[in-house]
Amino acid sequence: MNSRERVLAAMARHSTDRIPVFMWFQPSTRRRLAALLDIPPEYVDDAMGNDIRQAWVNNNYAMEGIVHDKNGEQHVDDWGIKWMKWGEFNQIVEYPLAGADVDTVLAYEFPRDRIEDLLANMAPVMEAKDEYFTGVDVSPCAFEMYWRLRGLEETMLEIAEQSDLAYTMLGRCADFAVELARQACTRFDVDWLWTGDDVAGQQSMFTSPDSWRRLIKPHLQRVVDVGTANLLPVAFHSCGAIRPVIEDLVEMGITVLNPIQCNCAGMEPADLKRDFGADLVFVGGVDTQQLLPYATAADVRRATTQLIEAMTADGGGYILAASHTVPPETPEVNLFAMYEAAGMDRDQIFDRAADIRRKLRTVQS
């Protein structure tokens, strides 16, 4: 059984006869759904049928796991990065290595003393092990981690110059991800290792594919190798137009690709399925820029049905997910239409919410 087949077999243990679902919701979307379903926000994933549970144990926890209530609220994470809530997300407002000289950059220490606390984020995931497909997320692994420390402009300049500093620091970022992955894969009985680096925009990659292969790929490979050494499927997340390096990702041993931003250059889901479907499980592809927020419910249902049919033409290899977090402007009817196409209608979702309320009342009593 190859890695792709292991993903499908593991998903089959946790899913019903419908398409597996792994959906991310923007914070205000989650709160709106919680109010609609009359459940606490932390139970929205249960009600909406998410089949996968995983936790951030690297810097993505600092970006997405720490939630502020009001715009302008800030925190400094264990890496020394200052974040501020603006809109739906935390945004970086201070990069600890911005403008620093070479010696200062090389002297930077990653927060190895915080590894235990970071890995502790896996506790609720493992409590759900028997009920859900589980994973550990060690992203960002190299490129995205470095620019969060250094700033995107300086990072891009160093990469363009093929500098020794860039190669060294990308390697040190990967070293930390490797350590987290090793410890997590040793301690936790997870179903996959989730890796990632956002390396592309709407039309092209941030670096040339050749630069990515020379400076980033060797370090990312070491993170992937931890998963394959532990006989785990390895998932990779990158937004944007990453088509030029998907073949590389397959060669590296990556089995799962997310989020398939279908409106980016070269990322048409059916084409990717045709070219890489024998090797990859795809997670994503439902457009969050135009389709979900602005189309009619009938259009959403039709497009999602067509996507599922194309991505499961060989009998499997697809997990329904949006191409980004579901935005707050998405009408409820559109969200339910997407789920209906996956085999779970509105009544089933509300029945799940009613079960959650009953369980909560029993616990409280």
Provide an overview of this structure.
The chain is α/β, with parallel strands linked by helices and 365 residues long. 47% of the residues lie in helices and 11% in strands. It has one domain (3-364): TIM Barrel. The strands form 2 sheets. The protein has a 7-stranded parallel sheet. Strands 2-3-4 form a 3-stranded antiparallel sheet. It is globular. The model has no long low-confidence stretch (mean pLDDT 94).
CATH architecture: Alpha-Beta Barrel
Helix content: 40-55%
Spatial ordering of strands, largest sheet: 1-5-6-7-8-9-10
Number of strands: 10
Instruction: Provide the CATH top-level class.
Output: Alpha Beta
Q: What is the average of the pLDDT values?
A: 94
The best one-word shape is globular
Poorly predicted spans: none
Mind describing the biggest β-sheet? 7 strands, parallel
CATH topology annotation: TIM Barrel
Order of helices and strands: HHHEHEEEHHHEHHHEHEHEHEHHEHH
N- to C-terminal distance: 47 Å
Described by its quaternary structure, the protein is single chain
Number of helices: 17
Q: Over all CA atoms, what is the radius of gyration?
A: 20 Å
Which structural class should the secondary elements be placed in?
A: alpha/beta
- Could you say how many structural domains there are in total? 1
Strand percentage lies at: 5-15%
